[in-house]
């Protein structure tokens, strides 16, 4: 019997420490809304990683599921008077439905053709969201109330909303872990490694790919729905193609095909987007140079440089390289 690697021994402790840190974050002075936003994008990246990292399908249209579910959730609460849990279920179902449609149209294509079809379909949805009257057009869907969960728990409090978000994200992450380590997940890995061989073994590859696509889209929809409830709005940026690029960046930077990689990658990208502008204002006050106030507009340059460094130094992503090195050290 093979002994466990160092990674297998320390991984549960790492996730446990992360959970404890998230539980204590608001009590230690962290801004709850920012951490909730980070958790939503971590779920988004983890759902995308299920498709790319474990099935080998590169989708350029995942923003459609995030933004589409965000709009459905926002309108369900604001327009139909749904409670937050029903609205999030509707948004998640909307993401799954979009995933079924996109997947059915794209799944039988491979490589760049598959990616381009998902991008084209996502851009079609973007223009629908831009023109449809109920989305608010360029202004987006604003002023979405949080309401009361199950009619009992008032989500207006940031602290209450924070712990509800944490529970939802943790449960969704556990679902991803269970999916990856299930027989279904092993088939997905086999398809990624050698699709012709998986076909020769009798697996209906197209059906497995489609199911993986729908699961990824549904979890992405859950992230978008949760984001709308947390922030109180859904905008065109949620469904824009650049958001699809961001999730690819998060996944590759953190470590493709690892559970912890997308979490780290999303944290790096979201923190850069929020903190570079603040750092620029700090430098402006310190030096009196007004140019620094526009530093936040250069966040794409900074993230691009970090991505280049990761590609050059960490070919498997930050967590990917760390895991590879730790796996070489077996416990006695």
UniProtKB/TrEMBL annotation:
<dbReference type="Pfam" id="PF02653">
    <property type="entry name" value="BPD_transp_2"/>
</dbReference>
<keyword id="KW-1133">Transmembrane helix</keyword>
<feature type="transmembrane region" description="Helical">
    <location>
        <begin position="112"/>
        <end position="134"/>
    </location>
</feature>
<feature type="transmembrane region" description="Helical">
    <location>
        <begin position="160"/>
        <end position="180"/>
    </location>
</feature>
<protein>
    <submittedName>
        <fullName>Amino acid/amide ABC transporter membrane protein 2, HAAT family</fullName>
    </submittedName>
</protein>
<dbReference type="GO" id="GO:0005886">
    <property type="term" value="C:plasma membrane"/>
</dbReference>
<feature type="transmembrane region" description="Helical">
    <location>
        <begin position="291"/>
        <end position="314"/>
    </location>
</feature>
<feature type="transmembrane region" description="Helical">
    <location>
        <begin position="247"/>
        <end position="270"/>
    </location>
</feature>
<keyword id="KW-1003">Cell membrane</keyword>
<feature type="transmembrane region" description="Helical">
    <location>
        <begin position="41"/>
        <end position="66"/>
    </location>
</feature>
<feature type="transmembrane region" description="Helical">
    <location>
        <begin position="210"/>
        <end position="235"/>
    </location>
</feature>
<dbReference type="InterPro" id="IPR043428">
    <property type="entry name" value="LivM-like"/>
</dbReference>
<feature type="transmembrane region" description="Helical">
    <location>
        <begin position="86"/>
        <end position="105"/>
    </location>
</feature>
<keyword id="KW-0812">Transmembrane</keyword>
<dbReference type="InterPro" id="IPR001851">
    <property type="entry name" value="ABC_transp_permease"/>
</dbReference>
<dbReference type="GO" id="GO:0015658">
    <property type="term" value="F:branched-chain amino acid transmembrane transporter activity"/>
</dbReference>
<feature type="transmembrane region" description="Helical">
    <location>
        <begin position="12"/>
        <end position="34"/>
    </location>
</feature>
<keyword id="KW-0472">Membrane</keyword>
């Amino acid at each position: 019997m093979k002994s466990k690697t160092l990674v297998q021994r320390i991984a549960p402790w790492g996730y446990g420490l992360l959970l404890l840190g998230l539980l204590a974050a608001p009590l230690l002075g962290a801004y709850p809304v920012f951490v909730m936003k980070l958790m939503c994008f971590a779920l988004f990246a983890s759902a995308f990683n299920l498709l790319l990292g474990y099935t080998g399908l590169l989708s350029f249209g995942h923003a459609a599921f995030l933004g589409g579910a965000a709009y459905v959730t926002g309108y369900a609460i604001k327009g139909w008077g749904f409670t937050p849990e029903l609205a999030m279920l509707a948004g998640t179902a909307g993401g799954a439905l979009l995933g079924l449609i996109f997947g059915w149209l794209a799944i039988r294509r491979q490589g760049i053709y598959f990616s381009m079809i998902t991008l084209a379909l996502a851009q079609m949805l973007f223009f629908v969201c831009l023109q449809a009257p109920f989305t608010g057009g360029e202004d987006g869907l604003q002023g979405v109330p949080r309401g009361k969960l199950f009619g009992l728990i008032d989500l207006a409090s940031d602290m209450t909303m924070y712990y509800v978000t944490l529970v939802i994200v943790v449960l969704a992450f556990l679902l991803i872990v269970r999916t990856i380590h299930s027989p279904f997940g092993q088939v997905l890995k086999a398809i990624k490694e050698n699709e012709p061989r998986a076909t020769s073994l009798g697996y209906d590859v197209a059906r497995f790919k489609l199911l993986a696509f729908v699961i990824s889209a549904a979890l992405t929809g859950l992230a978008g729905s949760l984001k709308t409830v947390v922030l109180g709005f859904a905008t065109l940026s949620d469904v824009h193609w650049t958001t699809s690029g961001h999730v690819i960046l998060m996944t590759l930077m953190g470590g493709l095909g690892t559970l912890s990689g997308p979490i780290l990658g999303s944290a790096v990208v979201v923190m850069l987007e929020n903190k570079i502008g603040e750092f620029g204002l700090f430098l402006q006050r310190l030096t009196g140079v007004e140019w620094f106030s526009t530093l936040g507009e250069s966040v794409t340059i900074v993230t691009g440089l970090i991505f280049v460094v990761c590609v050059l130094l960490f070919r498997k992503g930050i967590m990917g390289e760390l895991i590879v090195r730790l796996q070489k050290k077996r416990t006695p």
